[in-house]
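@channel anyone free to eyeball this complex?
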Amino acid sequence: MSNVYSMIPVPQAQQIVLDHCWTLGSETIPSHEAVGRVLSVSVVAPDSLPPFPASIKDGYAVISSDGIGTYNVVGESRAGSMDSPNPAQGTVVYITTGAPVPLGFDAVVQVEDTEEVPSEKVEEEEGTMTSSDYKQAGRKNRRVRILKAASPGQDIRVVGSDILVGETVLRSGEVIGVAEIGILATVGATHVTVYKQPHVGVMSTGDEVVEPSTSPLGPGQIRDANRSMILAAAAKAGAKVTDLGIARDTEGHIQGCFDRAVSAGVDVLITSGGVSMGDRDLVKPLLERTGTIHFGRVLMKPGKPLTFATLSLPSAAPGEGGDPSSEPQRSMMVFGLPGNPVSSFACFYLTTLPALRKLMGWSNPMLRRVQVKLAQTLKMDPERPEYHRVALQWSKCPFLEGRAEHVGCDWWAVSTGNQISSRLLSARSANALLEVPQASGFLRQGTLVSAILIDDLQAMPDPDGLSLQ
Amino acid sequence: MSNVYSMIPVPQAQQIVLDHCWTLGSETIPSHEAVGRVLSVSVVAPDSLPPFPASIKDGYAVISSDGIGTYNVVGESRAGSMDSPNPAQGTVVYITTGAPVPLGFDAVVQVEDTEEVPSEKVEEEEGTMTSSDYKQAGRKNRRVRILKAASPGQDIRVVGSDILVGETVLRSGEVIGVAEIGILATVGATHVTVYKQPHVGVMSTGDEVVEPSTSPLGPGQIRDANRSMILAAAAKAGAKVTDLGIARDTEGHIQGCFDRAVSAGVDVLITSGGVSMGDRDLVKPLLERTGTIHFGRVLMKPGKPLTFATLSLPSAAPGEGGDPSSEPQRSMMVFGLPGNPVSSFACFYLTTLPALRKLMGWSNPMLRRVQVKLAQTLKMDPERPEYHRVALQWSKCPFLEGRAEHVGCDWWAVSTGNQISSRLLSARSANALLEVPQASGFLRQGTLVSAILIDDLQAMPDPDGLSLQ
Ligand SMILES: [Mg+2]
Ligand SMILES: [Mg+2]
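replying in thread with the prediction:
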C-alpha cells in the first residue's frame, strides 16, 4: 500500500486542496454578529456622510465675503439641534463641531479667531448675573467680532466628503473586522450578506486514544489532544464545528463516524490518526472505497502521511434546513491528519485552514509568508522540508544580548525547542511555522528564513519591553 | 474649562491607565471554552507522556544485546493493545508506531531493517492461502531476520520524554490558544482556572446621534457608528459586553446610562462624544462631580479630548452573582472617547485595549510595536503626533513596481488615505497605527517608521501573491 501514493510537495498539496473547494452559499445576518465573516455582496451607502455641510470647528458660521468685522449672532447650530436663521450679510451663527452649517453660510471661523462683544443691555446687568444667566441672556442678543477673514468653504466638511451616496464602502470579499462594523453602522446596514460558515466535523481514531477526562490512564492509553485542538482551531478560523468523538481502529467504527458527519451536514471532515501504513490504519482504505483520495503522502516534516479526499454525497444532508437546490451536488472534503499531535497541528494550518478560508469567501486564503532571522542554528533534514515551530518576535538580536552589537531591532524566529512530532509543547506559543529547507547541514543563526504566520502577532513575545513608548 | 486639563503625551496616558487597572478574580471553566483566556493558575502534568516507553517506528522490539540474527516473533504491541510476552533473549515483538515497548525489550528495529522469515509450516501451505490468511497464520508462528544491530534505547521514546509528571506545561499568565487547548487535553485538564473577563459597557452620547437602523436620516442626524464598533472591539478583545444605548446631551440622560452601567456590574465603561469643550459636552463635568478624572486631554491626533476617570462604587453590584467579599472595593474605569469615529477607534486601541488585556491577566498588555517602511510620503503635524491608519504588508517595494529595483521584500506601511477623524473609511482594513512624529515637514517614502499592531497580520494584504509557495 505504501507505494500507492506518491509523495507530493506541500505547495502541490495546497493547490490540490484549494482546487477542490467550492463556494458555500450566502446568508444575511445581523451586522453585530458578522465579525470575522466575509461579505458576499458589497455594501453601498444609501446616503452621504456628512449628510449636511458640517462644521469642523467650534466657532461661527459666516458669509465669507463679509470679512473682518463685528456681527450679530442670529442663531445657533449644535449637533442635533439647529435654529433656521435667515442668512443675511452681516450676520453669523454660533456653531459647534459636527453641527450643520445653516443654509446661506459658506465658512466657519473657529472661536479662537473671534472675540465676543457683549451687548450693551447685558453689560449693564452684568454685576447681578451668574455666568450661566449671562450665557443664557447673551445668546438672545449677542454680537461677535470676527478677527480673521474666512475663505469660502473654510472648516466645513461638504456633504459626502467622508462617504458619497451610492459609494461602495465595503467590497464583496472583504473580511469584516472592528472598523468595518462601524462602517456598516454608519451607512445604516443593520444586516449584511456574507458567505456561510463551513461546517467542520472533527474525529480522532485509535484504540489507544481515550477521552481527555480519563485519569488515571490505563495501560497503553494516551489522551486525545487532537480533537480538542482541531475543534478549537476550526472554531477560531470561523467554522461551525461538530465533535464526532473517537473511533476505534475498526472499519465499522470509523464508518460510523463518517456517517454521523454526513448526516450532520458537515462540509469538511477532519480525522486524525489511522493514515499510516500499518494494518490497523484504516482511514485511507475506507476513503479509497467510499471516495477519491487526491493525495496520501506529502513531503513534509512532520505530517508525511497527510491524506486528502473528497466524498460525493447523494443529496443535501437532512437536518441542515438549507435550500438543497442552491447547492446541487454536495460533497465532503476529508482531511486525514496524522495522529501525532504536532503533525496534525502543522497539517491543519498548512492545508485545512486555507481550505476553510476559501470556503468562507477569503479572496486570498493562503497563509501569509514573511522573512525573519533565525535566533539559533538549526539542523536541516536532507529527506524532507521541515515546518519548525517558532515564536516570531520583533526585538534586538537575541544572541548578542549584553554585547555592544546588541542594537537595532529585527524580526527574529525563536525555536520552541525539541521538534519531535509527539511533543505538542513545541507548538506552545508558536505563532509561525519556519520553512526549513530540505538539505544537509545547518541553517546558521542569523540566516534569513521564510516563516508562515499561524497566529496573531499582537500577542507575540516582547522581550525588550518595547511596547510602552 | 479647557485649561483644567493639561495635555499629556500618549505614553503617560497609557501608564496612568495601566496603573489604575486592578486584577479581576479567577474562575474555573471548561477548557474548550478557554481560547483567548489567560491562565491564573499554572497547569501541571498529572502523569508522564508518553506514559510508557513508546516505539517511534513500525518494526520489532528487540533486546539490543541480541544483535543481528533470526528471531521468533513472540508477540505484538500495537497502539491500544499489547500482548504481554515474557522477554527472553532470542525473541522479538512486532510493534507499531506509538505502541508500548514490552517490558524487558530495550530497542526497536524499524521494519525497513528487517526481513520476514516465513515459518516452514506456513511455507508449505502457501499455495492455497490468501495473503490475509497468510498474515493471520504468520502471526502465530513468525520469525524475522534482524539486519542491523540496535543500540540500547534506539527508536524508543522513554517515559516522560515529551512531558514529565509534575512538569508545568502551561504557566499562569499564558494566553490560551489552539496548541494550548491540545496541551490541556493531553494532561487531562478538562477545566482550567483563568482570569475573569472584564465586563465592558458601551454608550454613545449626542443629540445628533441616532440608531444605525434610522433611515432616512432626519435633519442634522448621523448614525451611531461608535457603539457598534467599540462593542465589537471589546468583544473581540475577550470582554463581556453590554450595550448601554445612546444618551442625549443632558446630564440626566448620561447619568442614567452611568447608573445602568453600575447596576449591570460593568468594570469598564466606554463612552463616546461629550468630552469636548462645548457647553453641551457633559461627560467630563459629570465625571468630575461623581469620580476622579485622571486625564482629560492627550497630545495625539486624532483623539485630543480623550478622558480617563475612575468612579468608586459603594459595593459589589447586585445581579452579578459573584462573591462580593473577593473584590472588596469595586470601582469602574471610564474611558471618555471623543465622538469622531476615528478618534474613538484610535483611542480605544491605544488606551482601552491595553487596560482590558491587563484586567484579563496579560503579563504584557501593551500593543506590540514594530518598524516598517513607509510606502508613501506623509506630511507631519507640528502640533501633535499622529496615529496614521495603515495596512502593513510584506511585499516588494510598492513604489518601485515595474522597475528593476523592484526586488526583495520588506514590511511596508500603506496609508488608508484621507485621515480626517470623521472618515471611518480610513480605519477600513487597517492593521496598524503608524506613529507619525510631531514635527514640521514630511516623512519621506521609504523611511523607517514605528507602527503599533492593532489587528491580526494573518489577514494582511498580500499584493505579490506570495502566499502559495
Ligand atoms: Mg492509530
Ligand atoms: Mg456631542
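from a first look: Residues 310 and 333 of chain A are 5 Å apart (CA to CA).
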